[in-house]
Structure to design on (329 residues):
């Protein structure tokens, strides 16, 4: 089989029902099913080339030739692709993000989605979308939701084959916007990968799980019916539940900064004044402000005026992970 080079672009995604905690850490099987939207302006581009002359994988993330945990995770994922393709060659993998890495915008999702699609293509593997989501999930759980386009559900299951992601609705189904209010750009102290392992001791873990299960069909239907009221209500509650679990884990994870909380209050104030808007927050301090296209320009400008907001990244529903000829090397 001819080994080649391939490049893929993957979007980050924002979860309305979150993935927080796993039933199986090595296979990355989540405790609960989750629902998200791909973010068209928060992307990772990754080029992978297998090369029999290389002695070890060479991983270049954001221009830096790194030998750390991120590199090891990339190498382990390349091992999964090598096992599927029955190849021995090491690879060169280079990736670049369109947004700050490790700051509550899921760079692991866009990164592992792009890596999965690029590495499989470079290895000459032909896999359908479901198989790609299962493979991406093993690199980083939320990455599986970045493989299909638009609005996506990731199913929980006890087996690897059962825990895949599929589209709920295409990107043009609903003009939902995610305005990411960036208040922090440095790496968070405890990444989500570790956070999932700390859920157990939280006294709220099982209550959150029950609530996430209750809310899952409501959020799915709210997307299908373009019902912003229900989506906003359930999404905001779920974000707060996830952070309650994180805060009561051992050790306790407190991702919010004073700016985060200030924006939460401000968004609620805008909503009380009649604007259809809500927030959600991943494992970081940045606030994802959700609204519809008709209110996006106004809210974008208002967010930029708030103290502590360094940037606003305005996202519409994004495509699935796709191959491109724009190789990075
Ligand atoms: O896929 P991971 O390990 O980066 O976990 C993502 C966790 C959250 O972003 C906080 C929630 C989610 O469902 O995306």
């Amino acid at each position: 089989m001819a080994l080649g080079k391939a490049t893929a672009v993957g979007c980050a995604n924002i979860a309305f029902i979150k993935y927080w905690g796993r039933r199986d850490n090595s296979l990355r099987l989540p405790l609960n099913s989750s629902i998200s939207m791909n973010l068209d302006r928060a992307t990772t581009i990754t080029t992978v080339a297998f090369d029999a002359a290389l002695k070890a994988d060479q991983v270049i993330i954001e221009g830096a030739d790194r030998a750390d945990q991120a590199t090891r995770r990339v190498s382990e994922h390349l091992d999964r692709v090598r096992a599927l393709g029955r190849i021995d060659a090491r690879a060169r993998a280079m990736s670049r993000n369109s947004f700050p890495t490790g700051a509550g915008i899921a760079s692991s999702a866009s990164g592992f989605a792009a890596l999965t699609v690029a590495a499989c293509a470079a290895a000459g593997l032909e896999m359908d979308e479901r198989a790609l989501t299962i493979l991406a999930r093993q690199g980083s759980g939320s990455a599986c939701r970045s493989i299909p386009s638009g609005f996506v559900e990731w199913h929980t299951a006890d087996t690897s084959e059962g825990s895949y992601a599929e589209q709920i609705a295409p990107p043009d189904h609903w003009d939902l916007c995610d305005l990411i209010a960036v208040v922090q750009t440095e790496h968070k102290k405890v990444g989500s990968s570790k956070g999932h392992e700390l859920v157990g001791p939280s006294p709220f873990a099982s209550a959150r799980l029950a609530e996430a299960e209750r809310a899952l069909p409501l959020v799915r239907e709210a997307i299908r019916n373009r019902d912003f009221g229900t989506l906003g209500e359930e999404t905001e509650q779920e974000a707060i539940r996830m952070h309650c679990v994180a805060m009561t884990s051992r050790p306790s994870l407190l991702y919010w900064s004073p700016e985060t909380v200030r924006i939460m209050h401000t968004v609620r104030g805008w909503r009380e004044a009649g604007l259809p808007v809500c927030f959600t927050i991943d494992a970081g301090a940045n606030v994802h402000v959700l609204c519809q296209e008709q209110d996006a320009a106004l809210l974008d400008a208002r967010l930029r005026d708030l103290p502590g907001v360094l940037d606003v990244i305005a996202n519409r529903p994004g495509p699935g992970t796709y191959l491109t000829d724009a190789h990075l090397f």
About this structure: Residues 15, 18-20, 34, 106, 108-109, 140-142, 192-193, 196, 282-283 surround PMV (CB under 6 Å). The two ends are 22 Å apart (CA to CA).
